[in-house]
Amino acid sequence: MERGESSESKSCDDDIWAKLAPLSSRCSDIELRSDEIVICSEVKSSSVVKQEWCKITRNKDQVSAILQNKSSSAMLVDEKVIEDDDTTIIRCGSEIILGSDTEDSMTYRFRVIPPEKSCSTQLKILLDPEHAKCSICLNVWHDVVTVAPCLHNFCNGCFSEWLRRCEKHPKVLCPQCRAAVEFVGRNHFLHGIEEDILQSDSSLRRPNEEIALLESYASIKSPLVINSGRKSRRKRIRSSTDEEIRLDSACPQCVNEYAGFQCNQSTIHLQCHSCGGMMPSRPNNGVPQHCLGCDRAFCGAYWHALGVTGSNDHPVCTGETLKPISERTIIRIPFLAHEKNRHEQYITENCFSQVGKSLQDVISEFVTKMNNRQIDRTRLQLNHSEMITAQTHVCNECCDKLVSFLLYWFRITLPKHLLPPGALERENCWYGYACRTQHHNEEHARKRNHVCRPTRGSHML
């Protein structure tokens, strides 16, 4: 049996512009990297003796090529017989049968790989740094936040300190225009502009000590809803005790007192990312209100600690929406695991039986290793990744990301002899876990191992 390989000339770059994909799983793809390539056979019994099969020359239209028969026998291209030294045009999807003996012939499919699209036109925007300064500290924004409805921008630390000073006031006023503030949140778009300004003019950067102090003040992680002090226009009803109860209360603690606390007109509220319900912002309460992995607010842990249940007027999440991974029961491999490659997920599932452990056992083992700093967290796609431990409260989505990260480390540290038989025969993909082809090419996702570090591309370590 012969295996094809390419002998390149007139090399232009290392990009693969096309490939010959074998219909048989016993052979590997023949990658075409040059505009003119000679395809040869490699005989296993003698690595020195090689026979030229054909020459493929890329056309100027970038989507087709000219194939010339270089062998001593005829070959079939799209069911057309091509004699020795004859040429024909091949396009994406063309079927090429190399060899005259049908039992020993090799069948390939010509595939054109589209080039990556790149934006050749860049838009330049001129921005005066004076328009990107916080009116409180008079420096370029740091972790910029935007208040509404006036839409003025401030440093997160500066406005967080302003909120603390306004706690005893009936409403929060904008430091710049004195309008009543009803909402404040981090502005990720302006954060990118902030970084571009500091990169273009390093003299505008603050000292590291000042930045550290500013970040210690910052308390705005997710959008805050602020009571402006305006009276509700909705009708009120009176109870038998003649106490007024608002029908549009922001949260259960706006109506009733729980654990010695009840909201007032100056209480700042957080909106739960899961159920959309409201809860008072109490960062010093001791009960987590934010997921450390994504900085989004979730009300489950807060209301669960107070024993508050939801209603039609006040939606409340269950305690499962925000809890430590050490308290979670992992019963399935997340859909996100191994970059959503279902073949790799299936192999990982088989590995559990090979090592005689359950999914929960494996996750518990690697959570312990993470706590002991035995795992590199570079690939952990969570905010504050270095601060996350087994006791850190995370949401369900971040929990799936964390479990997927731990399963990656389980696979790459697993001895090869414990892999299923079919997985042992696969070669590593050059681009490893960062491979994009595995998402749209089922055969490539199955034939190559993608639970490995990249040896090519921008994700190389």
UniProtKB/TrEMBL annotation:
InterPro entries: CHFR_Znf-CRD, E3_ubiquitin-ligase_CHFR, Znf_C3HC4_RING-type, Znf_RING, Znf_RING/FYVE/PHD. One of its GO terms (biological process) is protein ubiquitination. Keywords: Cell cycle, Metal-binding, Nucleus, Transferase, Ubl conjugation pathway, Zinc, Zinc-finger. One of its GO terms (cellular component) is nucleus. It is found in: Nucleus. One of its GO terms (molecular function) is ubiquitin-protein transferase activity. Pfam families: zf-C3HC4 (PF00097), zf-CRD (PF17979). Residues 134-178 form the RING-type domain. Its main location: nucleus. The keyword Metal-binding applies. It comes from the Eukaryota. PANTHER family: E3 UBIQUITIN-PROTEIN LIGASE CHFR (PTHR16079:SF4), UBIQUITIN LIGASE PROTEIN CHFR (PTHR16079). This is RING-type domain-containing protein. It comes from Fraxinus pennsylvanica.
